Every structure is written in C-alpha cells, then in structure tokens.
TrEMBL record:
<feature type="active site" description="Proton donor">
    <location>
        <position position="845"/>
    </location>
</feature>
<keyword id="KW-0670">Pyruvate</keyword>
<keyword id="KW-0547">Nucleotide-binding</keyword>
<feature type="binding site">
    <location>
        <position position="782"/>
    </location>
    <ligand>
        <name>substrate</name>
    </ligand>
</feature>
<dbReference type="InterPro" id="IPR018274">
    <property type="entry name" value="PEP_util_AS"/>
</dbReference>
<dbReference type="InterPro" id="IPR036637">
    <property type="entry name" value="Phosphohistidine_dom_sf"/>
</dbReference>
<feature type="binding site">
    <location>
        <position position="783"/>
    </location>
    <ligand>
        <name>Mg(2+)</name>
    </ligand>
</feature>
<dbReference type="InterPro" id="IPR015813">
    <property type="entry name" value="Pyrv/PenolPyrv_kinase-like_dom"/>
</dbReference>
<dbReference type="GO" id="GO:0016301">
    <property type="term" value="F:kinase activity"/>
</dbReference>
<feature type="binding site">
    <location>
        <position position="759"/>
    </location>
    <ligand>
        <name>Mg(2+)</name>
    </ligand>
</feature>
<dbReference type="InterPro" id="IPR002192">
    <property type="entry name" value="PPDK_AMP/ATP-bd"/>
</dbReference>
<feature type="binding site">
    <location>
        <position position="575"/>
    </location>
    <ligand>
        <name>substrate</name>
    </ligand>
</feature>
<comment type="function">
    <text>Catalyzes the reversible phosphorylation of pyruvate and phosphate.</text>
</comment>
<feature type="domain" description="Pyruvate phosphate dikinase AMP/ATP-binding">
    <location>
        <begin position="66"/>
        <end position="311"/>
    </location>
</feature>
<feature type="domain" description="Pyruvate phosphate dikinase AMP/ATP-binding">
    <location>
        <begin position="24"/>
        <end position="57"/>
    </location>
</feature>
<feature type="binding site">
    <location>
        <position position="783"/>
    </location>
    <ligand>
        <name>substrate</name>
    </ligand>
</feature>
<comment type="similarity">
    <text>Belongs to the PEP-utilizing enzyme family.</text>
</comment>
Amino acid sequence: MKTVYTFGGSADHTDPRQKDKTVTGGKGANLAEMAQIGLPVPPGFTITTEECVSYLAGGSDFSEMLRTDVASAVKHIEATVGKSFGNNDDPLLVSVRSGARVSMPGMMDTVLNLGLNDKTVKGLAQTSGDERFAWDSYRRFIQMYGDVVLGVDHGLFEEALEIAKEDKGFYNDTEMESEDWQTLVAEYKAIVQDELGHPFPQDVQEQLWGAIAAVFDSWDADRAKVYRRLNDIPSGWGTAVNVQAMVFGNMGDTSATGVAFTRDPATGEKAYYGEWLVNAQGEDVVAGIRTPQYLTLAARDRAGAKQPSMEEAMPAAYGELAGVFEILEQHYRDMQDIEFTVQDGKLWMLQTRSGKRTAKAALKMAVDMAGEGLITEKEAILRVDPMALDQLLHPTLDPKANRDVLTSGLPASPGAASGTIVLDADSAEQAANAGEKVILVRVETSPEDIHGMHAAQGILTARGGMTSHAAVVARGMGRPCVSGASAVSIDLKTRTLRIGNRELKEGDTLTLDGSNGQVMAGTVATIEPEMAGDFGVLMEWADKYRRMRVRTNAETPNDCKMARQFGAEGIGLCRTEHMFFDASRISAVREMILADSEQGRRDALAKLLPEQRADFRQIFEVMAGLPCTIRLLDPPLHEFLPHADADFDDLAVTTGLDVDHLKRRAGELHEFNPMLGHRGCRLGITYPEIYEMQARAIFEAACEVALTSGAAPVPEVMVPLVATRRELQILRELIDRIAQEVFAEQETEIEYLVGTMIELPRAALMAGEIAHEALFFSFGTNDLTQTTLGVSRDDSARFLGPYVDQGIFERDPFVSLDIEGVGQLVELAAERGRKTRDDIKLGICGEHGGDPASIAFCEKVGLDYVSASPYRVPIARLAAAQASL
Ligand code: ADP
Ligand code: MG
Ligand code: MG
C-alpha cells in the first residue's frame, strides 16, 4: 500500500486510492482531481491518513518506507518545477498542509515557504530578482514554523513586527522594505534562540520532517479534539499531509491570493462570491490583517467599496478563474469553495472542496441545482443536512419591530440572536451553562474560541471578512454571526464595548441580525419562519421518496398544531403525566396518590377524568383522522409527592385529612430508585383504577371528536414499561373492557389499538411472546438505553463527556442510538414481534426518533414510523427520505 501519492506535473493519478478522501484527505484528493482535469495545480504529494494514524499510535516515529517514499516524491516536485529543495542558488520552497477526510477549518496548521534558510533566501532573492519578496517570505516562514512546529508563542513575533512598523511609522506590512524584513528576520531568529535555547533549524530536511510531524501531532491538539467532538468526527481518522511547491501571491502588484465560492454561501444565490488581496500570501485574506477586496465588480458596487475588484484589477486572471469555477461546478456538481493564488499574472489553484453553506443556502442550492439539471431530485434531498434545517425553523427578526441599530457589519451567518454581551469564550461557556443567552463579542475569533462560539446565541466580531474564521465556523454551527463590524471597539480591561459613541458593558443585551449584518441594542421581537418556498419544495420531494411515516412527540394542542404545520402524520408519543403536573390538577393527583383506599383514589380520579378527557379532545381535534399513541401513566408516583409544607397544608384542606397523616403516607411512598420502582404498567396493575380513568378519557374524547368532526383519530393506547406478556395481557383486557363500555354508552365505535412500549431488555428479548397481546410496539429508546447500558440519563453528564473524548462511546447514546448494542435489541424485538404477528406496527418514540443517524437505522430495521419533537419533524422527514434513498 502506498504511503505517498504525487500530484501535478507528470504524476499518475489513476490509483483510485488517491481520490479516496479516507486515504488522502479532502484536500489531497481534490488537489489530485484538479490536476487530473487539467487545472493549474502546483505539483506536490500527499502522505496518507494511514501514516498519521500509525505515527500517532507508534510513539511518533516515521517508518523507513515513509522516509524513502517522501524522498522520491520530493524529487517529483523538483523535476516538475525545475528547482531543488535546499539548493542555495535556486531553491524549491514548499508548503506543508494538513487535510483530514472532512474539512476542519482552522484546526490544522499550515506552514508556508518551507525550505528557506540563511543561504537559500539569497538564492530566492537572486532568481526572483526581488529581494524584498525573498526576505518577506523568510520572515513569514520563521514566524509560522516557529509557532506551529516549534511552539514559540506567535504573539512574540507579532509584537516584534508591530514594533518594527511603529519605528518606521508604517501602517501596512506592504510598506516594509527589504532591509526592514532582513532586520526582522534577525530578530525572529533571536526570539527562537531565546525561547528554545537553540537556533532556528537551517537544515531543510529537518524543517520538512518537523513540519510533517507537526501536522500529524495537530490531529491530537486540544482545539482539534473540541471540533471533532462538536462535529462527531471519529478520533481514529487521522489527517493526511500535503507537501506542495509554493506559488507566490506576494511577488508584487501582479500577484495576489484569494478565496472564493462558486455561489453565495450565505444566501445560495448563483453568483460568484469571494475575497482577495494583492501582493499577499495564503492566510492574509482570512486572518483579517488587511481588509480584503471583493472578487466581482457587482459585489464591490453593492458594498460601495473603494478598492477595485479582481474583475477590474486583474481581468485576465479573473477570466481564467471564472472559467475554473464553471469547470469545477460541472465536475463536482456542487458549489465549490476555492483557494487560489496569482503569481505574476498566472493563476494557480490551491484547493477546492464542496463549500460550507448556511442552511438557507444549502436548501436554495439543492433546489436550484435540481432545477438547472445539475443534480437529480434525489441528490437534492441528499444535499441538505437534516440537522441544518433546524436553523430555518427558528424565528427571525420581525421586520416591523423597532430596531435600535448601533452599527452594521458583514452578514456572515444568517438568523437572529439576542443575548447578553460576553467578551471571551470561557465567560460565554460559563454563562450559557448557567442558562443565560449570550452574544460573544470578539475582535476576531480563533480556533481557541470555538467552545464559546458554540455556547453563544450569536457572534459579533470587529474584524474579518465573510471568509474569516468567525464567519466560516459560525455558518457551520448555524450560529448567527456579524463579522467585521469595524465601529466596535472592545476594552478587555474595563470589560466594556464602544460602538460609535455608545458605550456598552458585559451583561448588556444585544441583538444581531446575521442576515443583514445589523447590530442592535436590546432585544428585538421575532417572527415565525417561512415554511413555503424552497423549504416546501424540498419537503415535498422528501415526502415523495420516504417510506417511513413521521409522527411527533407532543402532549399539548399547541405542540400538536405546530407539529402538524411541520408535517407530522400523527402522534408517536403523548405523555399523559405532563397533564398531571399541571398546577390546577396536581392537588387532585396528590389526593389520589395519598388516598388510603381504592375508593379514595376513585374519588380523586373522578375529578381528573373530565380534565383528561378535555385534554385528549383538543389533541384529537388537531389530529383528527391520524394515529395517536397515548401512553398511560408512566412515572413513579414518587414524582408527584408534595415537598413543601404549604403543599401538605393545602392538601389537608382539600382532603380533610390531617397533615401528619399525609406526611406519613408520603413517607411510605418514598422510593430509593424510582426509575426502577413503582412506575409504568406496575401502577396499572396495582392501581387499575388509574388506567381505567385514562382509558375512559381517551375513548370518550375520541368518540366525541368522531361524532362532532366526522374524522376519528385512531388512538393507540400504549402501556409503558412492560417486561412480561402477562402484564400486558391483564392491562389489555382492562383497556378493551373500558373501550366496550364507552362504545356502548356513546352508541358509536372507533378503531383503536392496544400495544406496548419496548423499553426493557426483557421486553425486547420476549417480544415474540408479548406480541401475542400487542398490536403495536413503540421502541422507547430513552429508557431502553438507560436499562441496557445501566446508565442513568440524568446522572450521566459527569462521565459522558470524557467517555466520548476517550472513544468509549462514539456519541452520546442518549442523543444518537447505540446501534451496536441497544440497536441489537431493537432489531431482535422487531424480528420476534413480526414472527408472532406479521402486521404488528413498529415505531420509535425515544429522543432518537429525531436523530438522523438513528433514523437511518430505523429504516434499516424496517420500522413503520419514527416520532420526534415538533421542531424535529422536518428533520425526521428529510432524514427518513435520505435513509430510503
Ligand atoms: P487551511 O486548511 O487552513 O485552509 P491550507 O493548507 O489550505 O490551510 O493553507 C492555508 C493557505 O495557505 C491557503 O489559503 C493557501 O492559499 C496557502 N497555501 C497553501 N499551500 C500553498 C502553496 N503551495 N503555495 C501558495 N500558497 C499556499
Ligand atoms: Mg489554517
Ligand atoms: Mg485551505
């Protein structure tokens, strides 16, 4: 198996492994592909991700094979470019770039201009005829290499540069002369010597291997781990390393560097979008050092920018670039995010990848591209990340609301966000953990801020363009972001913020409109999202292709209505206990629990019956004609017990019993482990009158709705926490008996089903037996996960994080189903249930019913439906469609 793949020049790109991102990473695979379709790509080579994994596993050692293969790959670059690595007269310089399977913005560090030393810098000056450029490149190299590979604090270099500029009275780096850079190089080298106790490495081989090691090691850096955890990227993938001949955007006014998208990544509009800088290198554009210029004339006009666009300043190179955009979109059949450099008028492509986009843009592009015939409807469905829909389903700012606009920046990531101001990532995280909504305000964000960006409702930066770190990361996370709001100045000492002439402090509220870049004081009213348009079209396609039905978990008429608007096709889980907790009812519930006798309980239940019936009637009206799974009372009675003395006093008045007596009863009902205690069907078995009342309320309400609206709901009465066939048999008889009573009284009949939740391992194992009594199973994967893993969901926060970090669980098993373990029980129960009753209805009602990966598993097992909370219904519709394609 090859450890290294060369690209560009005369390299052979036919090995399919080279285009496999799992082997060569996203960047490496696409560089090879661009070279193959004839685009101008500087030659280079990619070290496989496999090498990274074995290097990290094997105590940071390079294999002999890798050393040999790298040496011959360097020869490939030398031969193609006609320069040699480490040659003093005409040196080859390379970049060393990381590239994992999926792009991880800012996570991995790139080193540019590698191969420079005190001798080769002179050769570079000679051959390029540009001394200033050579020394600029050398100081950049020392700075990057010093920071990334040698671990010298980059602040030290930046400070030295600032002082050098100040001494000269310069504002921009571009004003620095050759001699200035030379002086700075000497200072940089002194910094390295001081910090490390040894000189900056002059041996180019040492430089190269040091950089390769740094890229490998960066896979395990803290910030990469945070990003991986937030994005569910397995730690075992590793990163590839790309070593590539340098091309120079910093060779004067005919050179430039830039980043571009083939369509607008914020809105999805079909227009080239990008930023570039004359006489600059790589990271300059994204680092926010100088304000980048617009790519197209149209964008420049719209923004009213002074600096010329690339279209105007470099028409030939721009024309070529536009041609490349078209080729790339046709080739990849998707919007591309591109990095390019122009060296002395000649265009070079340095990267392409399918671009990150906002949910809104993803939706628009998918629908547009299907319309253009670039992709099919099915592909369009697969293009939109179901979880991203979440962003579109949430409110935006009410256009009619008053806005106290403080300033405007760039609309870097759409959506509305309000919250209190915090000025650093750690505070953002702390405040968010305490339940506060915060807006993170920074000069510019860096990868160290990711946890704070995640914790914040929205992000505001004073510097940086549309492709800055803040913008890219915020779009990926779905956080509204306004970037480059230059009127914002932050004083970290006083923890205050000045915007124009307004002074704000940490803790004041701020609202951001990420769709137009406005920054407002206070909180601004919001409106509900638009369900029509592209969203409606895509959902229609999804509905056309999905097999599974999508229901909702809801127990209030409002949630039911919302879920219907989102396309729910029934209720998968209506938890009746939520109705019991209602303030106006809790005392009747407590009266029932604390009653000494069956009669006492029946008296209290009689008060609850009309209330429950009214609840169900409202729900059934919304869900007329649709299946509604109603779960009978499930939680331990323990949870309803009064705590405060005042509660006992109230209860004494309503029941006429004395407080001491009530307290003693409450003491008797106390449980040590309520989760495994007197709950679920165990309540129904011991206090049948509770389930009788609930069944009566369900059937009476259903009959009423059938009579008044003509469209009966189909109640699916669900018995929780069943472990044995006999439990369900007893309760099924009870439910059937009540149904017959009600039908006789109402002189009407409706269709209904009795079934059970499968949420105990025993129930899953005995599903074949239980199915004799059940017309449906609903997998209660929350409890099934708790009982199978022996992990209490409510107590798992303390160890689940470390468990995921250490790869014990790939993801939080309460968020995404543990398919390997708990999944087996689901699969087996489905199989055994069907064997007994081939038309048994199967669904899932745990939290997992709204998680795309779990939904894909449900499709595989052949469940009839999934059920999700109302906002997750569209996500589930799309995920179900994707799963069946
Ligand atoms: P990231 O993954 O953070 O985008 P890259 O490896 O793409 O890092 O490198 C960052 C920047 O460095 C790119 O924008 C690119 O313009 C520049 N760069 C990388 N390799 C070269 C090269 N061989 N020649 C010129 N510029 C380069
Ligand atoms: Mg980078
Ligand atoms: Mg890049």
